[in-house]
Every structure is written in C-alpha cells, then in structure tokens.
Amino acid sequence: MMGLPLAFTEPLLLIGLVSLPVLWWLLRVMPPRPRRIEFPPTRLLFDIVPREETPSRTPWWLTALRLLAAALVIFAAAGPIWNPQTGSAGSKAPLMIMLDDGWSAASHWDVRIRAADELIANADNDRRAIALVPLSEPNRDITLMPAGAARVALRQIAPKPYSIDRVETLTAVDRFLKATGDCEIAWLSDGIDTGRGDDFVQGLGKTIGDRSLTVFAGGTSSPLALVAAENAAAKMTVKVLRTDSGIAMGTVRALDQKASPIAEARYSFGPQDKETEAAFDLPVELRNDITRLEISAERSAGAVQLLDKRWRRRAIGIVTGTTSETAQPLLAPTFYLTRALAPFADVRLADRGSPQQGITQFLDQKLPMIILADVGTVAPEIRERLNAWIDQGGVLVRFAGPRLAQAEDDLVPVKLRKGGRTLGGSLTWEKPQHLASFAADGPFAGVAVPKDITVNRQVLAEPDAVLATKSWASLEDGTPLVTGEHRGKGMVSLFHVSADMRWSDLPMSGTFVEMLRRVVDMSGYTAKPGPGIAGEATAETVAPLHILDGFGAFGPPPATAKPLPADYRDRATPDHPPGFYGPAEGPLAVNTLAASDRIAELNTASLRARHATYTNAEPRDLRGWLLSTALALFLVDAIIVAVLGGGIAALLRRRAATAMIVFGLALTGFVALVPAPSRADSASDEFAMKAVSQTRLAYVVTGNADVDSIVKAGLSGLTQFLAQRTALEAGDPVGIDPGRDELAFFPLIYWPIVPGAPKPPQDAINKIDAYMKQGGTVLFDTRDAIEAPPGDNGAAQTPGMQTLREILSSLDVPELEPVPREHVLTKTFYLLRDFPGRFSTGQTWVEALPRDEDEDSAQRPARGGDGVSPIIITSNDLAGAWAQRLDGQFMLPMSGGDARQREFAYRAGANIVMYTLTGNYKADQVHAPALIERLGQ
User: Fold this and answer.
1) CB within 8 A of 472, min separation 6: which ones?
2) How much of the chain, in percent, has pLDDT values that exceed 90?
3) Which of 313, 394, 667, 798 has the most crowded CB, counting CB atoms within 10 A?
C-alpha cells in the first residue's frame, strides 16, 4: 500500500472512510450538553454576569478527536496486516522462482532464501508445483517439483563469486513457459546491473507475455564492491562502489597472505557519489605484504580485492656510470628512469660514488630489481654477487651507452659487438630506424608499436642461433632493441639504447613507461630457467590454488575451475572464478570485477509487474492496536465532555463522600498494581532450596521455545548418562535468567546462542562476569558449525558467532585457545581427542594457560593449574546430541557419518561436567610414578 508493507484482509470496508465528512457535519451541529447554573432569587438576576459561556457548536478539536477514533475503527474492521505474506493466494498455476545468485546477491543471501521459502510455503498451501531457476545456470533444465523437493534444491543453491549474465537464461525460461502454459513468476532480484541488465528486462517482458510477475527488490542495503586497487608512490588506494545513497561510510581492511590484519582505511561517500576511495598510508614494505582488501561487514566476493605480485610496489635501485646527472640532472639517465618508474615503483638512487659501491649498496638492501645505466666493467667480486643474486630471483636491467659499448661483460643476455652502430650520421649511409614490432611471446606483447620513435645509435648483438628467442623488441631492420633471458630464478634484460635522449627518443615516450612496467611486473616472479623467453609465455598456464566463494571466503577449487594463462588480467568467469592461481610462493590473483567495471541500479520499471520488497519481519495483525487506540480516544472524549458539561464538578459537590470513597478505592487499586520492593520471598527461597539440595546443571532460558525445550531435554539426557556411567547423581536441570536468578548454586551453565537475539541487559552481563570470576563455568554453544562458510576464518562469520561476540564484548574474557591434545579436559573421565555434538567440525575453545617455553610441546605433560576455565565455547550443538524424548528416542539426528558420534558427544559432556566439578586433579597424576618411587625408598 503506497510503498508500505501493509495490506488489508477486507479492503472494501475502507469505503467507510467516505462517511467521515458526514460525521464531521453531524458532530459540529450537535452542541454539547448545556451546563446547569443555579441562580439566586430573581431580584438578583440582572446583577449576575456569567463567567463562562456555553458554545453553540462542538469545538473543532473535539470533533477531530472523534473522527480520528472513528477512522481507527474503520481501519481495524478492514483487517490491516503489516508485512503481509507475498504471493497470490488461491492461484492454482505453477510457480517459477527466478533467483539472482551472483556475487551481488551474497551480502543479503539469507533474506533472499527466506523470501523464497515464504513463496514455496504459500505455493505448498495452494498445492502448486514450483520451478527454481538460478540465473547463473543457463544450461540447467527447468522442471516442476513439489514443495519439499523445492526446499531441498533451494538449500543447495549458493551465490556465485562472479557476475552473472541473466540474458543467457532467457532461452531456457522461454522453453519452459511454452511447455507449461499458465504460470506465476517471482523474480528475487538483487537490484544490481553488472552488464546487459536492460537487455534482460526487455527480453523477460517479451518472454513472459501477460503472465503474472512479481519482482522482489529493495528492503535491504545495496551491495558494495571494490575495484581498481593501485599501489601508488605515497599510498595504496582502492575504489569503493555503490549503487544508491544507502551506506555513507565504512572501513576497508588490508590483510596479508596469512589473513593477518595489516591496516584499516576509512571511506565515505558524498550525498550523490557512486564511488569513492579508501587509502592506506603505509610504508612500501607493508603495502607490498597486502594480498587481500575487503570491506568490513560486507560478505560478498565483489567486496574483496585480491592482490598479487603485480600490485607490489617494488623497490628498484638505479646505478649510472655517467656523470651528467651532476652537471645536467634534467638530461641524465636517472631523470628519465625515475620519471618513468615513479608511478608504479619505489625508486632508489645510488649514493654518489663509484658504480661498484652503488651495486654493493643495493645488493646489501636485497632489492628485487637493479637498473644499470651505461655501467661498463663490473669488478669480479661484484659480478659474482650479482650472479648469485640473479639466481635467487633478482632482475637486472641494463641500458647501453658508451661505456657498455666498449666493455666485455657477461651480465648481458646476448654477446655484444664492440663499438655499437651509429645511424643517420654524416659518415654513414644508414638512416635512423623505427620500432618494428614486439615479440608475440615476450613481456611486451600487446603493447601498441609507436611509429614516431627513432633510434640513432645502438649496441649490436652478435648473431647466433638463439638470438631470435631472446629478442623482445626489434627495429625495422631486424636488429634487436631489447633482449632478455632467464637465469636461475631471476632475469637479465638489456635495452640496446641509452636511458637518456642521446641515442634515441624512446625515453620520452609513453611506450618506455609501459615497457618498464612490464619488466617490473616480472621482478620477483619465479620462472623456469631457460635460454630465453620465446615459447614459454604462450604455453604457460597456472592451475587454481585457492578460490573465493560467493561470500568472499577462501576454499578449495571447485571441479569446474580451469587453469588460465599466466598473464591473465581479465575479470572472473564461471571457468575462472576469483581467487589465487599458480604456485603458492607467487600466485596470480583473479578478481570478481575488473578495474574498469562499475555497478549500477537495475531498472525494472518497464516490466508489467508487481513490485515487492524483502523484509525480515513476520506478518503482524494491527487490529488489536487500532481498536485499543480508538477505545482510548473514546475514553478521552468522554472525560472532555464531562469536564465541558460540568458533570465532574457537580458530582464532586453533591456526592463528595462518595467521590472520596471512589477515589480511595482507585488509589488502593493503583498501589496494589505497583510492584512491591524486591526482597527474599518464598519463591526465591524455594528456588535456592531446590538448587542446593542436589547438584544440578543449569541452562540460560533464551525465550525461544524450541531451543529451550531441546536444551532442557539435552541436559536431562546428559544427567541420566552421568548417573549411569559415573558416581554423580544430579538433579533435574534448571532454567535460569541471569539477570534475575542467583547463579552461584550451579557449577556449570549451558548457554545456547540464538542468532539475532537481543543482547542481555548489563546487569545480567555483570552477574555472569562475577560468576565466572568466582569459579563458575559457562559453556557457550553457537550450534552452527555446519553453517560455517569454508575457509580458515569461516567459523567466525556465522550469525551465531556474531551474536556471541556481541555478548562477550562486555565480558572480561581471558585469552582463549582450542583445546590442546594434552589438556586435562581431554582426560577428565574419558580419553578424548575432540568434543563432538550433533556436528563434529567445530572447535572447542577454553582459557589459554601459560606454557613453559623451555618445554618441548610434544613431550610436555598434562597442563597444571589451580583453576578451571571459566568459559568454554563450541559450535557443535552438544545439547542437540544429548536431547531425548520421553520415550527414549533422540530428538535430533547427527550430521556426521560416524555411528559412535552420539556416544562421543555424551562422553564429551561427561568430561566437561567432571572438569567443572573436580578441576584439573587429573593433571596431578603425571607425578604418580615419582611419588611411588619415593614412597618405596
């Protein structure tokens, strides 16, 4: 209704609102009851001047109050429903659900799944068949299925980590609609146009014809994306994209290869901005360690930017053998090289001194790349160090000049002729040469060949059988301009012209910058040794290593991921999903979006469709609220009429005693309704007696009836298991409210975490904190190990874990660690390696105790200490594994394939209870052999 999530079960009753103007007229012409005034004797009648006058019409504000009450009654009679369920009730046509499942749908995937569940439930009520159409799978057969099968199929759909092309699905949709006939269609859209969105909307309109279509969009924040990360000279920047003015600011996190945080950068959008930048002002060494940028609290592959060696701003040392940088610095080779390298590298110039000292300086600094500009003879000891540095992965780039032309040196990729060649001089017939081409299999492949660059002088290479394989760029006469070869893990390259304007005008061109960029990209890259580059680049492919899922978490490569070329620079595709490819020491990054990609809002206005929004709320009947408000307004109206008519004053005058009695009774009732001050009453005494009469396990009552019943049944099952297997005969478990009940009576409190539940009040948090510090143990169970996305940090991204973090943020929680294999908890009663529940994939965390640094971790005994861990955290749903019905049958199934998993879950519970009751006495038994030996003496 008017863009609001509001509907009416009887909308025709709203016609009654038309009668409100008539009611207004009637109320205005009917005056209020006249006020009666008792006059003195008639002789004094003319001397009386009335202090108040009775109006002839009802006041307008009183009339408005009555009209408002009447309107509320009409609205209540129409049956208003807030957040009504979607879908056309009563329809018998099949339902086809089209689901956007690209990266842009991942941030609010649970909302879309909930909407699809609701549609399936409505269709199930009408006994209709359902067809699910993920728009990322154009080759998938569209078939009708019952509601149960549709729910199973829906849970198997996950967002893809790349942009989807919806247009490709239209063929299958058209084929299905022609075969099905009448059909209701629901499109769960993410509202994002990542390409060809208008084509899909137009094609969809033609395909569905006059069939019923509902488009779901909005109601959630639009997704954010990262593109165009750039490691500039002073800082690293990345663009943050959005489609609307929803989210105005946020944080981008930078992580290293081990997923450890390096830094955070804030970003903010202007009122109308669709993109902004986040900047990391860090030293170049730290920026080079960044391998992942991600938007905080945004779970999608598009909100992740992966970085590889191409984004590293390499430190490059420049050594020159000329002296012109001192006399004419703007004409020196260092000036041209610095200007060309500055946009993408950290340029370092050698200190003033000999070239040998400059080379030694950079070798000591372990730079990945060194440029020698017209450096001739290199000392033997420096040459040995350079060769060792190249074998370990260093890149040496040399530029020709007069000194190199006269030297004999093996630190070049090809053998050179002495003296070089002069073109276009007065004593030569040869004209200056232009660039001819770049080798198709070399690092400059794809660079446009400029026609305005001329070469006046060059050093020539001695012709041999492998010269062509080492040539990266050539002149029109076929002589090489740039040559290179791999040596060990490194590379040696030679520009056969000088780095200044004396031999060519190449240093003044943009091609020079791009050529150096390509060479810099190769620095630090581990390559196979060989005589040259030819034949390697085209044949080299890299296999997938770690792949992002739709939520932006790393996982193993899927079976559909294919190897890609080592020089791949495009966006992710279904065959090449985003992630890292190639060797672990130098992987290639593939991102969801390319640097030039932008996202826009999808325009569906041209479709003849009903538009709905996603909602997280349940339908709510508003009739009770409206009727209660109308009743309150009628009571206010009655009081006002009584005041205006003088009825209350007359009542007080004539029946003062009666009024006082009524007032006293009302006051007594009010006092009775006010709660008495908190004190120890019989109920609290009974609770305390019940708690201390027997050892009992306790659990926190969450307010969710299903969860509370399962937890209570689970602790009852564990209590029965303890009575059968141990000497402990505990009483029935007790449900507690941390903010109201005393906690000191219980050795162990089981706290099931309900995702999205409100945070307990601070008083309850303070009581829990005091309970933990006084020796009690709280077992937090998020019960969502199976929902954790893949990846090292997947368990921390579940909704239950986020809710737990919010609770723990106000508690003084000690440092935690996964239960070590030598922890006393693993041997308190049973010998256990892990602590499974319904699920076995989650970790169990306890307080981390200090370790002896001089003790070998593999040989250290069971850990000692005086206390028990005040907190235990798991996600394996222990109570769900323990829960039994009254007939002895288990309430919930196990997720693992081990038939003994439930038995191990009970054993884990027994160890936890014994650990909280007896402490770590088992740790003392490691000293038993020494004690027996001493007693024997």
Assistant:
1) 438, 439, 442, 443, 444, 480, 482, 483, 484, 493, 533
2) 33
3) 394
